[in-house]
Amino acid sequence: MGKTIGYTQNNWTALTRFLDDAKIPIHSNASKRALRVAALGKKNCLFVGHDEAGQNTAVLCSLVSTCETLGIDPQEYLADVPIRIQDHLQHRIDELSPQNWKAPQKVDAPA
């Protein structure tokens, strides 16, 4: 019981942070849901082949998860960025990260 009280006292600011910012949820359901996906992916990728394939799979899973979190269609993002990255300026590469990415404008075909 003493350890629990000590933990609470030592972390009081972090534990009550949600009271100061309405954007912070009182529960951790979103993070638990994200961890569940990662744990399932880890189990499914156990026999991915070799280390490089595992790293590539982890990068793709991270991109897809980030896109979903930001409300971006992962398929649209992954179809657009490899094409645009070829001609994109290196010092502006952060514009293609999911947080900064802007979907290309769709041109309507003439009727």
Structure, described:
- The protein is mostly helical and 111 residues long.
- 54% of the residues lie in helices and 0% in strands.
- It has helices at residues 2-10, 12-15, 29-44, 51-70, 74-84.
- The longest helix is centred in the middle third of the chain and has 20 residues, at 51-70.
- The chain is extended.
- The chain starts with a helix and ends in a 27-residue tail after the last helix.
Fraction of residues in β-strands: under 5%
What is the makeup of the main sheet? none
**Which secondary-structure class do the elements indicate?**
mainly alpha
Quaternary status: single chain
Helix content: 40-55%
Cα distance, first to last residue? 73 Å
Count of DSSP-assigned helices: 5
- Taking all Cα atoms into account, the compactness measure Rg is 20 Å
Average predicted local confidence, pLDDT: 85
Question: What overall geometry do the principal axes of the alpha carbons give?
Answer: extended
Order of helices and strands: HHHHH
Number of extended strands: 0
Low-confidence stretches: none
